Every structure is written in C-alpha cells, then in structure tokens.
Amino acid sequence: MAGTLVELIEGNLEMLVDGITKEAIQRIPSYEKAPIKQTLIRMERMIGVLVESIRCNDPSILEQYLMGIAEQRREQAYRVGELHAILDILERHLRDLVVQTTPDEVERNAHLALADATIASARMILSTAYLLLAQANS
Asked: Which residue of 17, 91, 94, 104 has the fewest C-beta atoms within 10 A of its own C-beta?
C-alpha cells in the first residue's frame, strides 16, 4: 500500500512545491514576475492547507484559505485565470504523484478521486470568491 493521499503529499512535499513553482514561473506571467522565494512559500502554504483540509475531512479549511487568497490576489491584480492555472498545475502534479506511487488500482483510483474532487472544489471557491469580490467593488 502506498499510504493515504495525505501521506503521499507530505512525503513528497518538497518535490511538489519545487515542481509546481517551476512550472508556475514558466507558464503564468504574474508568477514569473514574483520573487521565487515568495512563490515557494505560497505553494508550500497552499499545499499545506489542502493537506490539512483533507486530513480533517473539513472542506471549510480550504474554503477559508482560498477566500482569503482570492481577495489578496485580486488586490495584487492577479486574474482568476492565473489562480485556476495554479490549480491546474497542482492537479497535474498530484495526479502524477499518485499514479507513480500507488500501484494498487483501487487505492490509486480512490486517491485520484479525492484529489480531483478537492481541486474541483478549489476551482469553484476561487471563481465564487472573485465573483463576490467583483460585485462588492462595483
């Protein structure tokens, strides 16, 4: 058994943060402009909150974090599409990790389903947060 999704993420945290950060810098203009140390810290924090939300089986942990991030990033002139791009990158790296480290098909599919549902929820939260912020500022 490969372990839980939380264990997989925590055991590969440095690799995930590094890979996601490098790809974000290459693909997303505002991340290319941001200091690399800041981006590394942000990625580690985001993954940490995601892990805590999954560990506690409490989606509100991720929701509260993302609502705050949406407000901060909007004030910093990040577009919602850029935040969705980060989630796309995170999702791809999580899926790759699960596929590479979980040989048991049932366990692998369970991990993938949990990762997919969590990222889909994160996308919805970010979109909703940006919409609410736009309405509040108009």
From this structure: 104
Of 92, 86, 101, the residue nearest 5 (C-alpha): 101
pTM beyond 0.85, yes or no: yes
Cα–Cα distance measured from residue 135 to residue 98, given in angstroms and rounded to the nearest whole number: 38
pLDDT band at 138, cuts 50/70/90? low
Q: Which CATH architecture has domain 5-136?
A: Orthogonal Bundle (1.10)
pLDDT band at 2 (very low <50, low <70, confident <90, very high): low
Mean pLDDT of 96-119: 96
